[in-house]
Design brief:
By secondary structure, this protein is of the alpha/beta class. The protein has a single domain, classed as Glutaconate Coenzyme A-transferase. Helices cover about 20% and strands about 25% of the residues. It has helices at about 10-15, 35-45, 65-70, 85-90, 105-115, 180-185, and strands at about 25, 50-55, 75-80, 95-100, 120, 135-140, 140-150, 150-165, 170, 185-195, 215-220. Strands 1, 2, 3, 4, 8, 9, 10 and 11 form an eight-stranded mixed sheet that branches. It has a three-stranded antiparallel sheet with strand order 5-7-6.
Length: about 230
């Protein structure tokens, strides 16, 4: 079974094959469940012209925000971009292309891409700028727009536990976009908190089966809080 071992022992090996102008699908929601070390490795590699598909672009100086510092991102396909001043600056200056996508549509684009479905119809966005230039069809008297699915050259994902065969479990809300992203990459790399022996994961609890995963690396995580809010009432 040694040939099924997907564990790599360096971030360079984890992101081997990444080159300029590729598309990367990144799991996470805000700073929750993001593959921190893999993002830092992309920054270190200096890869340029990247298209990033992700819920957002991190914050200034952390997460995907690191890739903005060297202007490595050419285009963002995302649903929320409100926590990053550098993102705003590059968008307004024309240095960064942005394709805003409704959040549920973005999730379905990843899921459909991973399932081999090229496009789907959704009512979300009809009658808004989101629908401009897209095919419209009517089902049961209601108009729907066609959205194309998304796949990437790489998918980078963060998991809680995994075995060396690539079976993954996510913890609580860190599940978010990670299992969807994991299915949609030609090469899927998972950064994991804990590596366990095969058989230690309850089969019914596995969120991403190892068939979707190409590489596993055990990471160290800072786990920043995106926005800390403390109640003043007792």
């Amino acid at each position: 079974m040694a040939g099924f071992n997907k564990v790599v022992h360096s971030y360079a090996a984890a992101m081997e094959g990444l080159s300029d102008n590729m598309t990367i699908i990144a799991g996470g929601f805000g700073l929750c469940g993001i593959p921190e070390g893999l993002i830092k490795q992309i920054q270190t590699m200096g890869t340029k012209g990247i298209t990033i598909v992700s819920n957002n672009c991190g914050v200034d100086g952390f997460g995907l925000g690191l890739l903005l510092e060297k202007k490595q991102i050419k285009k963002m396909i995302s649903s929320y971009v409100g926590e990053n001043a550098l993102f705003e600056q590059q968008l307004l200056s024309g240095e960064l292309a942005v394709e805003l996508t409704p959040q549920g549509t973005l999730a379905e684009k990843m899921r459909a891409g991973g399932a081999g479905i090229p496009a789907f119809f959704t009512a979300t966005g009809y009658g808004t700028p989101v629908a401009e230039g897209k095919e419209v069809r009517e089902f049961n008297g209601r108009p729907y727009i066609m959205e194309e699915s998304i796949t990437g050259d790489f998918a980078i994902v963060k998991a809680w536990k995994a075995d060396r065969y690539g079976n993954c479990v996510y913890r609580h809300t860190a599940q978010n976009f990670n299992p969807l992203a994991a299915t949609a990459g030609k090469i899927t790399v998972v950064e994991v908190e804990e590596l366990v022996e095969p058989g230690q994961l309850e089969p019914s609890q596995i969120h991403t089966p190892g068939i979707y995963v190409d590489r596993i690396i055990v990471g160290q995580f800072e786990k920043r809080i995106e926005r800390k809010v403390l109640s003043t009432s007792l």
